[in-house]
Amino acid sequence: RNLKVGAVKMLALTLVVFSLVATSALADRNDFVTGYGFTKIMTNCFGDENYYGFLRQIAEAGRWCQQEPVHIPEVKAHTKKDYHVESVVPGVPAIHYPQVPAHAHPHTYNTPFTYHQVPYSAVKPKHHEPIITAADVSGLIEVTKARVSNLTCTLRKLGEIDDYLNFIPQTSVNRILALPYISYSLRHDLIQGVQQCEALTKCLPLEYSDSVVPPPAIKRILAYLKCEKKNRLISCMKEDLKRHIYDIDISPIKELHPHETDDQTIERALFVLYGAKTDSFELK
């Protein structure tokens, strides 16, 4: 009997491990497919030579930074506008609950009735070895520090940020202006996206966040990169839609907004196509 119980436990443990490995493999595969799909969108938008050349520059800068010692610069918080908060913790108003008629209660006054009560136990849990050990945590700390250091080093090597981890938007603008074989409207949208993301990250009051990591300067870098990537994707989707606009009957949009330019109509068409499929409008 003990052998059977042990075999069942071993089988259950094997299934758990297998499910974790399968989930991890599926996530890795999804990450690869998503990344590959994004790359194909970018090459379709900018051309193979332009986009792969840009990725090559990033890879070369990253390899150079991997040879450098791990270093995360200490950046003092910039002087920012004071936010006047009238009340940090608002007062709790008195709540008057309505009186429920006696006949609405299932039990009359002083009538005893039983209900389930979870028993309280002050028993100290048995000591067991942690799943993630101190050595594991120390290793994760070093890996995280190395990744952050490599990111900031690579961005500095590319001229995207200065020594104080501030973005230099002119670097991205110059690269966009130097791109050959792209339309004026795409170039305009890309530059506008860089300017929007740079302005957005400057306005983030991250110094008021409760979280201590990562530092505000690193948070702004991550927010900028995410914003720029999303805006670049939308700009390329808009450009692709413009190329195939004759495959879509946009007359309903034209009827609703007859005085808008073709570029504005295409933006509305993209919003409609995206808005009908996205889950951004769902509360979860």
Q: Tell me the strand percentage band.
A: under 5%
The share of residues in helices is: 55-70%
Helix tally? 8
- What's the main sheet like? none
Q: Span from first to last CA? A: 47 Å
Concise overview:
This protein is mainly α and 284 residues long.
Description of the structure:
The chain is an all-alpha fold. Among the domains are: 1-36; 244-276. It contains eight helices and no strands. The chain has helices at 2-46, 48-66, 134-157, 169-177, 184-203, 216-243, 251-256, 262-275. It is globular, with a radius of gyration of 28 Å. The relative contact order is 0.08. Residues 7-23 and 79-100 have low confidence and may be disordered. Residues 1-27 form the signal peptide. Keywords: Signal.
Task: Write the SSE topology.
Layout: H1 2-46, H2 48-66, H3 134-157, H4 169-177, H5 184-203, H6 216-243, H7 251-256, H8 262-275
Helix pairs in contact: 1-2, 1-6, 2-3, 4-5, 5-6, 6-8
Keywords: Signal
Signal peptide: 1-27
